[in-house]
Amino acid sequence: MAWQKKAQFVTVSQAMQKLEKFCTYQERSQKQVLEKCRELGLTVAEAGEVMIHLLQTDFLNEERYAIAYVRGKSKIKAWGKEKIKQGLKQAGISDALILQSLSLLEEATTDLQIEKWARKKLKAMKFQEEKIDDIIEGKAILNFEEKQKVKAFLMGKGFSIQDQMNALLFLKS
Questions:
Q1: Contact of 57 with 17, CB cutoff 8 Å
Q2: Is the alpha carbon torsion for 38, 59, 78, 106 positive or negative?
Q3: pLDDT in tens, 3-44
Q4: 6, 40 in Cβ contact below 8 A?
Q5: Closest by alpha carbon to 81, among 116, 114, 115?
Q6: Helices in 43-128 by DSSP H: which ranges?
Q7: Total-model pTM
C-alpha cells in the first residue's frame, strides 16, 4: 500500500491528539485508524509512529474492538454470526480473534433473534399473527417457496442454515 505524501495538514503530535480523540469516541480497528491517518495527510512512516503510540497507550486494541463489534451487532442490530464475521474480516481482524470474539455469542440469544426475524418475514409475507404462531410452533406448514423466502431472508441477516434449522422447527421438514 504505497502512499504518496499529501500536503501536510497536521503535524505528527497534532495527529496523535486527533487520533486519540478518534479512538476514545468508540473502539476502532487498525484499518480505520490507518485510513484516518491517510485522510490527515500523514506519510506511511508517520502513520506507523502514530499507530505505535496508540497501541502502546492502549487507545487502540483489536481485541477490544472485535468484542465491542460482536456485542453491538448482535444485541443492537440482531445480526447472525456470518454477517458479523464478514464485518470483522472487512475491518482487518485476524481469524483467531474473530473466532474468539464470536464465541461470546450465546446460542439461546441467536435462536431468539432467528425467531424474531422469521416472524418479521412471515408478517411481511402477509401471514396473520395466529398463523405465524402456528408456523413457528410447527403446527402449520409452509410450501417450498415460502420456506425458501424465509431461509434467504435469514441468510441475509447472517444466520447459517444450521443455526436456522436448530432454531426453527418448520424449516426442518
A1: no
A2: positive
A3: 565 555 678 899 999 999 999 999 999 999 999 999 988 889
A4: no
A5: 114
A6: 44-56, 62-75, 81-90, 95-102, 107-124
A7: 0.85
